[in-house]
Specification:
By secondary structure, the protein is mostly helical. It folds into 2 domains: about 30 residues; about 160 residues, Orthogonal Bundle (Penicillin binding protein transpeptidase fold), CATH 1.10.3810. It is built from 10 helices and 2 strands, in the order H-H-E-H-H-H-H-H-E-H-H-H. The protein has a two-stranded parallel ribbon. The longest helix has 29 residues. It is globular. About 35% of the residues are buried.
């Protein structure tokens, strides 16, 4: 009896891990074909707004097919966020090495997240800075790179990325910042919207600083070299 009890917990843990793997696999495969009706962060913000009785704080989330999003914005995002998007498998080793060397020499942390990693984060996970969240992000990144193509990953990214307080995705951001659909964004507007992505809660596309204008210019200079997905 003691030997049986001894092996119960390892078996339970293995079963839990197997269930978790199967569940996440079904999640990723299903979302290859189905557009997510909501994201974890949008759902959390809605719950908070209901609990606090603040309907004005409810986030805006409007899904658009990639064909309904300006080609300028598609190119701008790749130019700004992940220029090797088409050639890596979800993890940009060059950027990871740069981030590591920067930390070693200057003790400064810099981002090395790819579009795939940011997509995994926004589609499947709540915002946090925990080690568990980072491991889950890496896990989901590997899965979406395995089961989705790059066009689907970019479409998911454009629709689920955090574009400011209460604003999720390209359509909601275009409506907020330029009072127009994401489909009709100009080259300049697309670059400006993309320029604030690293910190959309601090930087503004409505009242851009000189630094954001500089970023906009840099993005516009690179956009024509980016692929159109």
């Amino acid at each position: 009896m003691e030997n049986i009890k001894k092996y119960k917990w390892p078996v339970r843990i293995l079963k839990a891990l197997l269930f978790l793997f199967c569940f996440t696999l079904v999640q990723v495969v299903a979302l290859r074909f189905i557009n997510p009706p909501i994201t974890p962060n949008v759902a959390w913000a809605w719950v908070e707004s209901v609990i606090k009785h603040k309907p004005e704080k409810r986030p805006v989330y409007r899904w658009k097919r990639i064909e309904q999003i300006s080609p300028h914005l598609r190119r701008a995002v790749i130019a700004s966020e992940d220029q090797r998007f088409l050639t890596h498998n979800g993890f940009d080793l060059n950027e990871i090495e740069k981030a590591y060397n920067g930390f070693i020499t200057e003790k400064k942390l810099r981002g090395a997240s790819t579009i795939s990693m940011q997509t995994a984060r926004s589609v499947f996970l709540l915002s946090s800075r925990s080690a568990f969240r980072k491991l889950a992000e890496i896990y989901y990144t590997a899965l979406i790179e395995l089961f989705w193509n790059k066009r689907r990953i970019l479409e998911m990214y454009l629709n689920t990325v955090d574009w400011g307080t209460g604003v999720t995705g390209a359509e909601a951001a275009a409506q907020k910042y330029f009072l127009k659909s994401a489909k009709t964004l100009t080259r300049e507007e697309a670059a400006l919207m993309t320029a604030i992505l690293p910190n959309p809660h601090k930087w503004s596309a409505k009242n851009p600083s000189a630094y954001i204008r500089m970023r906009q210019t840099q993005i516009m200079q690179s956009m024509h070299m980016m692929p159109l997905l």
